[in-house]
């Protein structure tokens, strides 16, 4: 008997664990996938960024002391300062996914032309001037890992850094350049040694500076006067041999309340494709949370003055139309079909000269709309078009001749008043997750079952004009007080 009781309790414990695990399982509202094509393009765009950065970046001085035995000089103190990279070439550069680890960067056979000022001091002489330094056989290999910090921001680290320059050739300029060039070769070895010791610390420092900016990446944005949008990472990126996946929260919140909506995102999978550089899956949850947040914030309550319609349909005096959503608009994404059903109530009120309003009649209706989609820059733009609407007239007013005209009145109000107003608001669009200075090109949008799929290539817009910093997803602005109090899933 005791054994059976233990088995029952053990079974209940297992079932409880399963229930708790499923209850706490969360799924992303947005998935972003970068393919190998994105990495290949990243090499091209990255070279432009690195070239601009290298020309603006200050390089530490190279200092040292060497003996020149062939001149019987015990020591020569040298200092190369004001080091500037004028040109470089990395013809064999690649980026590749390392499953479960990160992205491997590799370059070899690189070259660089560097100008510098120099100064030498010895017991016999001292002098200064200018010089050109040509580097060849430049090699670098390292793995960039991307994880998630506690605030849902990306965290970047460099692992297994290996950097080396195989050859360095110094050419002095000035009145005594012929003399200095005659013993330039002995100077090249210590220069090369010092340079190779500096490379990985310099590269690691650049990555750390980049990561410091990532730690300030703003992942919560104010969309309008009613809502915020959360783009935080829900987990560390998933890396396979062919792509990297980012799982983003993708949820809207009313400005005054960062509690999650009373429904959960449904899991969805991106199709196995590789023709585009980037794939973004936007789930129904994203749009449903937008609908719920705007409803909770009262964004769907509008009052319109309809003088022209009043003259045509009912009265010679103007009247007001007050429309209030009775429930959050219903979102539906099915293959090739994106619809939005808006349950609402409408009140028609007369507006007299003394500004008092008197209700003519009120009724409920459901407007069914189709959602059009287009990508402009880095934003998803939506527009609404009316398919149909259903009126629910009060029983007591069904025989009233004025009420019987409400169908035409409502049609005019929706077509010429409400939808244009809504579409004007929607023109600001939703910011899509993309790196700074990167825009979408050759984009395609598909409506699949329960999620929207954006397939797009990327284009690097303009070279950086300053020391680079990572701005992250375009247009995202942190609301500090509310964000810091919000728990991270």
Summarize the structure.
The chain has 489 residues and is α+β, with helices and mostly antiparallel strands. The chain has helices at residues 2-24, 36-56, 177-182, 184-214, 284-296, 307-313, 401-404, 406-426, 480-485; strands at residues 30-35, 62-68, 73-89, 92-98, 102-121, 126-148, 154-173, 220-222, 227-230, 238-239, 243-248, 251-254, 278-283, 302-305, 319-325, 330-334, 337-351, 357-376, 379-392, 430-431, 438-448, 451-460.
Q: What topology emerges from the helices and strands here?
A:
Blueprint: H1 2-24, E1 30-35, H2 36-56, E2 62-68, E3 73-89, E4 92-98, E5 102-121, E6 126-148, E7 154-173, H3 177-182, H4 184-214, E8 220-222, E9 227-230, E10 238-239, E11 243-248, E12 251-254, E13 278-283, H5 284-296, E14 302-305, H6 307-313, E15 319-325, E16 330-334, E17 337-351, E18 357-376, E19 379-392, H7 401-404, H8 406-426, E20 430-431, E21 438-448, E22 451-460, H9 480-485
Antiparallel strand pairs: 1-11, 1-13, 2-3, 3-5, 4-5, 5-6, 6-7, 8-9, 9-12, 10-11, 13-22, 14-15, 15-17, 16-17, 17-18, 18-19, 19-20, 21-22
């Amino acid at each position: 008997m005791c054994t059976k009781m233990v088995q029952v309790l053990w079974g209940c414990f297992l079932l409880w664990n399963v229930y708790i695990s499923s209850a706490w399982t969360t799924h992303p509202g947005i998935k972003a996938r970068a393919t190998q094509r994105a990495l290949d393009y990243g090499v091209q765009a990255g070279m432009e960024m690195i070239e601009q950065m290298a020309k603006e970046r200050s390089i530490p001085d190279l200092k040292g002391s060497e003996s020149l035995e062939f001149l019987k000089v015990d020591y020569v103190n040298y200092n190369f300062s004001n080091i500037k990279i004028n040109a470089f070439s990395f013809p064999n550069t690649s980026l590749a996914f390392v499953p479960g680890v990160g992205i491997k960067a590799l370059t070899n056979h690189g070259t660089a032309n560097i100008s510098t000022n120099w100064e030498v001091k010895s017991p016999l002489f001292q002098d200064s001037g200018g010089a050109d330094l040509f580097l060849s056989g430049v090699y670098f290999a390292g793995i960039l890992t991307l994880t998630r910090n506690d605030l849902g921001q990306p965290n970047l680290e460099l692992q297994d850094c290996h950097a080396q320059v195989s050859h360095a050739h110094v050419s002095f300029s000035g009145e005594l350049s012929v003399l200095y060039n005659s013993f330039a070769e002995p100077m090249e070895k210590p220069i090369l040694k010092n340079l190779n010791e500096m490379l990985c610390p310099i590269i690691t420092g650049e990555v750390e500076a980049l990561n410091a900016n990532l730690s300030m990446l703003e992942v919560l944005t104010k969309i309008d006067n009613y809502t915020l949008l959360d783009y935080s990472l829900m987990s560390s990126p998933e890396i396979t041999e062919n792509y990297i996946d980012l799982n983003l929260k993708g949820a809207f919140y009313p400005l005054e309340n960062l509690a999650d909506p009373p429904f959960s995102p449904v899991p969805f999978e991106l199709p196995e494709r590789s023709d585009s550089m980037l794939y973004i899956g936007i789930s129904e949850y994203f749009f449903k949370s937008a609908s719920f947040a705007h409803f909770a914030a009262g964004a769907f309550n509008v009052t319109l003055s309809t003088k022209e319609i009043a003259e045509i349909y009912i009265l010679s005096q103007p009247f007001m139309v007050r429309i209030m959503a009775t429930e959050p608009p219903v979102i539906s994404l099915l293959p090739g079909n994106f619809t939005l059903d808006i349950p609402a109530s409408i009140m028609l009120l007369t507006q007299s000269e003394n500004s008092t309003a008197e209700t003519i009649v009120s009724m409920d209706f459901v407007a069914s709309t189709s959602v059009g989609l287009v990508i402009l820059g880095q934003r998803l733009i939506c527009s609404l078009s009316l398919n149909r609407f259903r009126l629910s007239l009060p029983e007591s007013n069904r025989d009233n001749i004025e009420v019987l005209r409400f169908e035409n009145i409502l049609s005019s109000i929706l077509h010429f008043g409400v939808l244009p107003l809504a579409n004007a608001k929607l023109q600001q669009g939703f910011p899509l997750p993309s790196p700074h200075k990167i825009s979408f090109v050759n984009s395609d949008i598909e409506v699949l079952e329960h999620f929207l799929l954006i397939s797009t290539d990327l284009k690097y817009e303009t070279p950086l004009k300053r020391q680079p910093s990572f701005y992250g997803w375009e247009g995202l602005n942190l609301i500090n007080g509310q964000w810091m109090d919000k728990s991270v899933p």
